[in-house]
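thought: user wants a sequence for this fold. calling inverse folding tool.
action: design(structure=
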């Protein structure tokens, strides 16, 4: 295949790949425990990857299905898709895309650290972003935070699920049917006991006697990291500075849970949120991009 050959002994490649992945997360400002945990996540299922070389570098690809991994990359949809896990070979991308297509993949996905590189033309589907939380974060004046009640939870959950599906579809990653399937799987994975799932915290944000937004965070998501699954300001209250206030609530919740950094995901197409997170000092940890075949 144009001088590209499958690598039978992958030890040299794997050592090189893991070192590069670890270096990328360190460069993004991750602590050693966090960088190590992210590396372990990045190599999950590595035994099932196909590795090839053209003599100039490496290619690592995988054909995936409907199991999904919950990392914001569109898995769990029931449709076959390809993943390019590593690409340093000069002529590797066409080969990798063809390899996926020949095995029935409908699209190809990549998870990237350190910028889009050779995949700048792949549409952006989402970003994981991270920022250290202030040691003693203060809630904005006039804003109070309380626990969401168990009675409020079902209505909140229905709205969150609908918003999640809409975000996925808006990003262009999946069809509405695929997005609904992914939503069902992800909520079942992260909230197996619903309101009482351990390490999950749900908040209501109030101002001027009204609930102006809600929050959902997962403490200990990764070493020293609270993941902000949702920090939502209700539409009728937007444009009044509450978006930045919600970021402060996320910092406060992070420290309440004993963590040091807050991580969140923003979907492609949500330019308003991306600008907010950029201005609030979040660093892009990973990008998820994909293209239809």
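)
observation: tool returned 293 residues.
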């Amino acid at each position: 295949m144009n001088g590209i050959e499958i690598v039978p002994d992958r030890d040299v490649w794997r050592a090189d790949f893991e070192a590069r992945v670890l270096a990328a997360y360190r460069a993004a400002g991750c602590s050693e425990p966090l960088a190590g945990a992210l590396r372990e996540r990045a190599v999950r299922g590595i035994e099932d990857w196909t590795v090839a070389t053209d003599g100039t570098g490496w290619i690592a690809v995988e054909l995936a299905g409907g199991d999904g991994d919950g990392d914001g990359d569109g898995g769990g949809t029931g449709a076959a898709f390809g993943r390019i896990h590593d690409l340093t070979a000069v002529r590797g991308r066409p080969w990798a895309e063809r390899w996926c297509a020949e095995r029935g993949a409908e699209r190809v996905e990549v998870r990237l650290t350190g910028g889009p590189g050779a995949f700048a033309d792949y549409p952006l589907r989402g970003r994981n972003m991270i920022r250290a939380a202030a040691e003693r974060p203060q809630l904005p004046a006039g804003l109070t935070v309380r626990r969401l009640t168990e009675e409020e939870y079902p209505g909140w959950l229905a709205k969150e699920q609908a918003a999640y599906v809409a975000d996925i579809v808006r990003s262009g990653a999946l069809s509405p049917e695929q997005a609904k399937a992914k939503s069902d799987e992800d909520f079942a994975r992260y909230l197996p006991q619903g309101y009482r799932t351990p390490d999950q915290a749900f908040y209501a944000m109030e101002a001027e006697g009204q609930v102006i937004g809600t929050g959902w965070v997962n403490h200990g998501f990764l070493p020293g990291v609270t993941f902000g699954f949702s920090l939502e300001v209700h539409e009728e209250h937007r444009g009044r500075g509450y978006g930045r206030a919600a970021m402060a609530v996320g910092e406060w919740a992070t420290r309440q849970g004993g963590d040091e950094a807050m991580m969140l995901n923003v979907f492609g197409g949500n330019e308003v949120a991306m600008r907010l997170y950029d201005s609030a000092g979040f660093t892009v940890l990973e990008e998820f991009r994909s293209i239809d075949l």
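thought: summarizing for user.
answer: Here is the designed sequence. Residues 131-285 form a domain with the Aminopeptidase fold (CATH 3.40.630.30).
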